[in-house]
Amino acid sequence: MWKVLAQLAVVAPFAHALLRFPCSQLVTQRFDPLVTPGIVSPHVHQIIGGNAFNISMDPNVDISKTSTCTTCKFQEDLSNYWTAVLYFKHPNGSFIRVPQMANQFVGSPNGGMTVYYIQPANNQKVTSFKPGFRMIVGNPMIRTKNVPANSAEARSLTFRCWGANFQSDPSYPHPGTGPLDTIALPPKACAGGIRANIFFPSCWDGVNLNPSDHASHMAYPIGDVPRDGLFFMGGSCPSTHPVRMPLLFMETAWDTRQFNNMWPTDGSQPFVLSMGDPTGYGQHADYVFGWQGDALQRAMDTCTDMSGQPDGCKALHTIPDATMNRCTQQVQVNEVVEGKYISALPGCNPVQNGPNDASMPSSCNAISTTGGVGGPAPTVAPPVVNPPPPVTTPSNPVYTPPPTPANPDAPMQTHYGQCGGQGYNGPTVCQSPYTCKAQNQWYSQCT
Ligand SMILES: *[C@@H]1O[C@H](CO)[C@@H](O)[C@H](O)[C@H]1NC(C)=O
Ligand SMILES: *[C@@H]1O[C@H](CO)[C@@H](O)[C@H](O)[C@H]1NC(C)=O
């Protein structure tokens, strides 16, 4: 037994370890304590995580101590994460929020997002974010992106056009890759909804926790994004940002299906992000670190489950979906943002197609104060019209790994050693009598 454990321990660092877990919706409103602390934000965000979230959040206050509940699967994660909300623009000019649905293989969170903390495939050690750490990816004002298609900047924010029942292109299962994942909002109706894929940069300058732009302390690893996306981007960090952090990745699952038969007759796509962006190029997300103590570092050091199943991470504690879903906040801005058709996007957000940057109207009659609401937060999403059929595939996202090229000169792998998987480039042939068996798309083992 010890021998097996010892060998597994040696094997584990080769693996492409990750945590993957759902966080349901905490509240949806015009708050953005990073960009516009203390005032009502220009556009609507959906917020997940700990309930210390507020209109302003002092970086010196440790939210892992002031939050009393979290909408995330791990009890230790009291961080906050937020992104823009998607609206459908009816041909008659009214808008309604697109409901969010539970992502694939996450249980039954109430809307929200799926969060991933991914470690590099090449055995680099990652350093956890620290208390006070905050970052933003993306820019809500832009309406075009003139960057090389394989750059991290291009691939970090994309939208997957799902076929029915979460169907993806089997040749490109990974987020941000292949013809179904576009940098702009999908140009055609997506039978199974749309998933937003958001990768934050993972290289830190090692000094600044929260610079005034909330972004210049972070950078992407050097080089082009490989065929299988940022998920599998080993690479090294630039010398200006030498510290490799977990790759933070988030997915939002939008149930656009009920709108697919209401597209404008001119064929233009009818969805618009809450900042008045019908292109998708202005997609953005914010992160406020709030893990308890060294919980995230411990998880990164010891949780090497290649499928990222929350229950597989013994360093952390999971909470039931119902407990996550009970953690909500009252809306503090007295305006309708969801659940019914509204005549304009909340805030001052005329739809602006670009390609020039969006401009803020000099005045509009949007509410700019909090208060006068009371009562519980409205339920997140209107009921899903056609619930997705039950998923019958195994309980974690398993894809057939592409064949790993055989190298006759390569050494042979020993019992329990890794012998394949995306992002792996070690020995692929097992010593007799063992054979190489795929455990998931990232990991095959000699057994
Ligand atoms: C949010 O901030 C307001 C004051 O700005 C305060 O009254 C309220 O208690 C805070 N809410 C939470 C959940 O901290
Ligand atoms: C547009 O259509 C929706 C759905 O039928 C309706 O609720 C909304 O009031 C309409 N808006 C206008 C301006 O007619």
Topology record:
Elements: H1 2-11, E1 18-23, E2 25-29, E3 45-49, H2 63-66, E4 80-84, E5 86-89, E6 95-97, E7 113-118, E8 134-138, H3 152-155, E9 157-161, E10 181-182, E11 194-199, E12 203-204, E13 218-219, E14 243-244, E15 247-254, E16 271-273, E17 284-288, H4 295-302, H5 321-326, E18 418-420, E19 436-440, E20 443-446
Antiparallel strand pairs: 1-7, 2-3, 3-4, 4-17, 5-6, 5-16, 7-15, 8-17, 9-10, 9-11, 11-15, 12-13, 12-14, 18-20, 19-20
The structure holds 2-acetamido-2-deoxy-beta-D-glucopyranose (NAG) (2 copies).
Task: Describe the fold and architecture.
The protein is mainly β and 447 residues long. It has five helices and 20 strands. The protein has helices spanning 2-11, 63-66, 152-155, 295-302, 321-326; strands at residues 18-23, 25-29, 45-49, 80-84, 86-89, 95-97, 113-118, 134-138, 157-161, 181-182, 194-199, 203-204, 218-219, 243-244, 247-254, 271-273, 284-288, 418-420, 436-440, 443-446. It has a six-stranded antiparallel sheet with strand order 1-7-15-11-9-10. A five-stranded antiparallel sheet has the order 2-3-4-17-8, with no helix packed on it. A hairpin with a 2-residue loop joins strand 19 (436-440) and strand 20. It is globular. It binds 2-acetamido-2-deoxy-beta-D-glucopyranose (2 copies). One 2-acetamido-2-deoxy-beta-D-glucopyranose binds next to loops. GO terms for molecular function: cellulose binding. Residues 411-447 form the CBM1 domain. InterPro entries: CBD, CBD_sf, DUF1996.
